[in-house]
Design a protein that fits this description.
Elements: H1 10-13, E1 17-21, H2 28-41, E2 45-48, H3 53-60, E3 66-71, H4 81-94, E4 98-102, H5 105-109, H6 113-124, E5 130-133, H7 141-154, E6 158-160, H8 172-182, E7 187-191, H9 197-205, E8 210-213, H10 216-221
Parallel strand pairs: 1-2, 1-8, 2-3, 3-4, 4-5, 5-6, 6-7, 7-8
Helix pairs in contact: 2-3, 4-6, 6-7
């Protein structure tokens, strides 16, 4: 495992932020502004719903800021494996460079580890880094260990503690657990209710390399944050 990243200023935090905008009723103008905010502040990526990936990809082309999206979300595990894999292929075609995916927690808790792993592997086949939302608070300790190991075996590039703050507020304990269990086989992204600079720094210190938040601008400017994810 590599040493945790040291963050000593908001500017150093910015490259680890995935600037998130996934809200019902979002307009084209707001999505374009969101992409431009990601460039202005030097964020890692602009995270948007799949229906806006083509617009954001056009806006970010040549900037160095990546295009990220999510699928099988916000109700994780609602899609079929085939549907999820096909949507992943379509999003990559439209310009997505990273994908966060929901996982089949119900299958895991039912003991169907094979289907749980194959569901993730089917999306990994699309060829871009896949971040799996593990929904840790919904799992027993044994189920957590199994979920991490199966996600790693399926080829996940990143492990995530949860899909949003509705499931878990991102915390150092969950991040440390994922880092230790992954043992260098995947990176870790923190997600859920990240709304303060100090919280963000603590998550990075625990081993996260990416932070998913709708409060990225507030984190790097010190303004009061209103967080939706």
């Amino acid at each position: 495992m590599t040493d945790p990243i040291r963050i000593e200023s908001p500017a150093e935090l910015a490259p680890h932020i995935q600037h998130t905008l996934i809200e019902a009723g979002t307009t084209r103008e707001r999505v374009i502004a969101h992409a431009r905010e990601a460039v202005e502040h030097g964020f890692n990526a602009a995270m948007v719903a799949g229906s806006w990936v083509d617009v954001v990809a056009s806006e970010l082309r040549g900037t160095g800021v990546q295009v990220a999206s999510a699928l099988d979300f916000p109700i994780c595990g609602a899609m079929t494996t085939e549907g999820k894999a096909r949507e992943a292929e379509e999003l990559v075609r439209l310009g997505a460079q990273q994908l966060d995916i929901g996982v089949q927690v119900g299958w895991l808790r039912s003991g169907d580890h094979r289907r749980f792993r194959e569901d993730i592997a089917a999306v990994v086949a699309c060829g871009v880094p896949i971040k799996v939302m593990l929904e840790l608070p919904l799992l027993t300790p044994a189920e957590r260990d199994a979920a991490v190991d199966l996600a790693l075996d399926a080829g996940a590039a990143y492990l995530k503690n949860a899909s949003s703050g509705a499931v878990e507020i991102a915390n150092p304990d969950s991040i440390s657990y994922l880092v230790e269990r992954a043992a260098g086989r995947a990176a870790v992204k923190a997600s859920g209710g990240i709304k303060s600079y100090d919280q963000a720094v603590a998550l990075i210190a625990a081993g996260a390399t990416l932070l998913g938040t709708s409060a990225g601008i507030q984190l790097v400017t010190g303004a009061e944050a209103a967080v939706s994810y």
